[in-house]
TrEMBL record:
Family named by the database record: Belongs to the aldo/keto reductase family.
Entry keyword set: NADP, Oxidoreductase
Molecular function terms, GO-annotated: oxidoreductase activity, acting on the CH-OH group of donors, NAD or NADP as acceptor
Residues of the site described as Lowers pKa of active site Tyr: 78
Organism: Leifsonia sp. NPDC080035
Segments forming domain NADP-dependent oxidoreductase: 18-268
Gene3D superfamilies hit by this protein: NADP-dependent oxidoreductase domain
Catalytic residues identified in the record: 53
Domain of life: Bacteria
Residues at which substrate binds: 111
InterPro entries with a match to the protein in the record: AKR, Aldo/ket_reductase_CS, NAD(P)_OxRdtase_dom_sf, NADP_OxRdtase_dom
Name listed for the protein in its UniProt record: Aldo/keto reductase
């Protein structure tokens, strides 16, 4: 399926497969292992995990057991949102590397600008400190690219003003009805790839009748239209499923939504 092997190119020239397999909320152990194996068997070559998901060891084992050459697979992981100092960031990266056991990381992200327990709190200085460690890891080749997640314009501005490497990606919550226009436009202007997590709104879009009416015209499912919608906005979708048939269906998105249907989807509010 071409959508699995087509790539976006990050601002540093690194290629990233256009659809990533999301592993948020998949428990460590057989569930993560089997889902990642199913995704790799289907042809996914981009797996997204995080220290906070607790499933890096199973992701790493699935990738190693797949027998697919390491350089054909793109692995993203994330530094916990609670880590806002240099020593913590170094430690977090080493721990993720150890658990994944895949050599380098392909993309390393700051999971959020603030700890989950204190969303919106000001950690500008801490994020800059963490980012400087990310720059060191990047310069040392430990990770091929670096980025952020859940950053809005003000968070990005403070980082850009005080650091050298512009983030290569920003992973944000992005789906039909929740397209974060200001952050998306800001990223686009600075060549920061936008990655969309929860492209199905963690399943909430699946019974949306407006999307279903569009999907019917193409003989596609609501999930496929919702994922395709991100691609046509140049946003990298990270669908998550533990069901092999859905894992495959979510990558079967080589069709084109018309400009009218894109506009209709743009107008939907969730
Ligand atoms: P499951 O893992 O049981 O397949 P998101 O990608 O927005 O986080 O959404 C993930 C949710 O959507 C999960 O609950 C997943 O369930 C479900 N899901 C993923 N793909 C499909 C699909 N093609 N059809 C129906 N449900 C899906």
């Amino acid at each position: 399926m071409p959508a699995l092997t087509d790539t976006f190119t990050l601002s540093n020239g690194v290629e990233i497969p256009k659809i990533g397999f999301g592993t948020w909320q998949i428990p460590d152990g057989p569930e993560t292992y089997d889902s990642v194996r199913a995704a790799l068997d289907t042809g996914y070559r981009h797996i997204d995990t995080a220290r906070a998901y607790g499933n890096e060891a199973s992701v790493g084992r699935a990738v190693r057991d797949s027998g697919i050459p390491r350089d054909e697979i793109f692995i993203t992981t994330k530094c916990p949102a609670e880590v806002k100092d240099a020593e913590g960031a170094r430690h977090a990266f080493e721990r993720s590397s150890e658990l994944l056991d895949l050599g380098h990381v392909d993309l390393y992200l700051i999971h959020a600008p603030w700890p989950w327990s204190d969303q919106g709190s000001d950690h500008r200085a801490g994020n800059i400190e963490v980012w400087k460690v990310f720059e060191e890891l990047y310069d040392a080749g430990r990770t091929r690219s670096i980025g952020v997640s859940n950053f809005q314009v003000a968070d990005l501005e403070s980082l850009l003003g005080a650091t050298t490497v512009v983030p290569h990606a920003n992973q944000i919550r992005w789906f039909v009805g929740n397209t974060q226009p200001e952050t998306t436009a800001f990223c686009r202007e600075r060549d920061i790839l936008v990655e969309g997590y929860s492209p199905l709104a963690t399943g909430r879009l699946l019974d949306n009748e407006d999307i279903a009416a569009i999907a019917e015209k193409y003989g596609k499912s609501v999930a496929q239209v919702s994922i395709r919608y991100l691609l046509q906005h140049d946003v990298l979708p990270l669908p998550k499923s533990t069901t092999p048939s859905r894992i495959a269906a979510n990558a079967d998105v080589d069709f084109e939504l018309s400009a009218d249907d894109m506009a209709a989807l743009d107008a939907l509010r969730s």
